[in-house]
Design brief:
7-stranded antiparallel β-sheet; 2 domains; 21 strands; PmbA/TldD fold; 9 helices; alpha+beta; 39% strand; 6-stranded mixed β-sheet
Length: 450
């Protein structure tokens, strides 16, 4: 039975058992991963998964009762049992007057967003191993100080997503994801440092050349040799694109309609207000061709779209699914993410900060004295208050040049204040996932060191 046919069968049985409405997802995935160290193959893995998820709503006084259930056993008997169990569980849940399917405005067109290349499924384990080895060789051969590695790997994931609901919407799409990375170890004067570089794409032929991935990884590891601590101070702080991306991921948590509804976001109540410097423009676009977060419809069957979240520093929109939109009196932005084991949750699609001009080195040259952050560690962000504190590594800047590498430091502040204090936005937008950013400079930030 096809994926949509299985989803529809579960919906039919849920309706027979008294569900007022329901939706179902069937997720099929196949993952291939190889890892090498030196010339040796560390691991070769292949995994397949099929899982059906069902969400049902039962009408009652006070709203709708709902429950979710899932199974990886896709036999007829199991699918029927899944639906019956979900309805029974829903009857035991508390009513919610805002629960339910979107009810209207489902996706009418399912555009081809270039999310996969069929030929990539024919790539053999041997071809994947050779690509990983090429990256590994390039990293190890970049400099005599590269003495070892944590390995180089290539991972490919192919997915097929099916969704159907009792409002009559049904749709499917296929996607793929490839990631090539290398993690060399550099040593000098008895000290060791490691770093990484990665390339990701929807198509394998759009990945960076393995040799380039290995060289970039080696350069980053070598640049950390001789790192030392610095004294505690306040200084301008530049975040390279990798670390600026991490800041944007923190902000995405606060932009979530779920967090805003619960008053667990420092952005709650600030729609239409200035929350950042006027040079910051932030966009989410679920229909970006080839985007690593693109999809033709979201986890509720609504069309994905481009949403300008921040324009000239002003907060224009939150990320919303239909439930959070109802609670806030707004419209869904098509940002429901759905897996088989739970109901929808709000998540970005392709989220990025619009690039400015120049690159990372231009920002360094324009900074008389300060810190360049190339690594962030830990999870020190509170979306309720916006307070931010992360372990960091990078380079100290003197006279517009990198003076020496630094480590064992902490950068801290408030994300809202940091966004308002951004005084330079680079043009080096970097996509290494569904969230991307260029280099950013914050005019002043606390740096805790020795």
């Amino acid at each position: 039975m096809s994926g949509l046919a299985l989803a529809r069968r579960a919906l039919e049985r849920a309706a027979e058992r008294g569900a007022a409405s329901a939706d179902a997802v069937l997720v099929q995935s196949e993952t291939h991963e190889v890892c090498v160290r030196g010339e040796q193959t560390d691991s070769v893995q292949r995994a397949r998964q099929r899982c059906l998820g069902l969400r049902v709503f039962v009408a009652c006084q006070g709203g709708l009762q709902q429950a979710c259930a899932s199974t990886s056993d896709l036999s007829e008997a199991s699918v029927l049992q899944l639906a019956e169990g979900a309805v029974a569980a829903a009857r035991a849940s508390a009513p919610d007057p805002l629960a339910g399917l979107p009810g209207a405005n489902y996706a009418r067109e399912l555009p081809d967003l270039a999310l996969c290349e069929t030929a990539d499924r024919g790539m053999t384990a041997g071809q994947r191993i050779e690509m990983a080895r090429q990256a590994e060789r390039a990293a190890r051969g970049a400099d005599p100080r590269i003495v070892n590695s944590e390995g180089s790997s290539l991972r490919s994931r192919f997915g097929h997503f099916h969704y159907a609901n009792t409002d009559g919407f049904a749709g499917s799409y296929q996607s793929a994801f490839h990631a090539l990375d290398s993690r060399p170890i550099a040593a000098e004067n008895g000290a060791q440092q490691t770093d990484f570089w990665r390339s990701v794409a929807r198509r394998s032929d759009e990945l960076q050349a393995p040799e380039e991935v290995g060289r970039r990884a080696a350069q980053r590891a070598l640049a950390r040799l001789g790192a030392r601590r610095i004294s505690t101070c306040r200084a301008p702080v530049i975040f390279d694109p990798l670390c600026a991306r991490s800041l944007l991921a923190n902000l995405a948590a606060a932009l979530s309609g779920d967090a805003v509804c619960r008053q667990s976001s420092f952005l709650a109540g600030k729609l239409g207000e200035t929350i950042a410097c006027d040079a910051l423009h932030i966009t989410d676009d679920g229909r970006r061709a080839g985007g690593l977060g693109s999809r033709p419809f979201d986890g509720e069957g609504l069309p994905t779209r481009q949403t300008r979240l921040v324009q000239g520093g002003r907060l224009q929109s939150f990320l919303l699914d239909s439930y959070s939109a109802r609670k806030l009196g707004l419209q869904s932005t098509g940002n429901a993410l759905r897996g088989p084991s739970a109901g929808p949750e709000v998540a970005p699609t392709n989220l990025w900060i619009e690039p400015g001009t120049g690159d990372l080195e231009d920002l360094v040259r324009g900074t008389e004295r300060g810190l360049l952050v190339t690594g962030l560690f830990g999870q020190g962000f509170n979306p309720v208050s916006g307070d931010f504190s992360r372990g960091a590594s990078g380079h100290w800047i003197e006279g517009g040049e990198r003076s020496h590498p630094v480590e064992e430091i902490t950068v801290a502040g408030n994300l809202g204040e940091m966004l308002c204090a951004v005084d330079a936005v680079g043009g080096d937008l970097l996509w290494l996932g569904p969230i991307a950013a260029p280099s950013l400079r914050v005019a002043s930030l606390a740096v805790a060191g020795a």
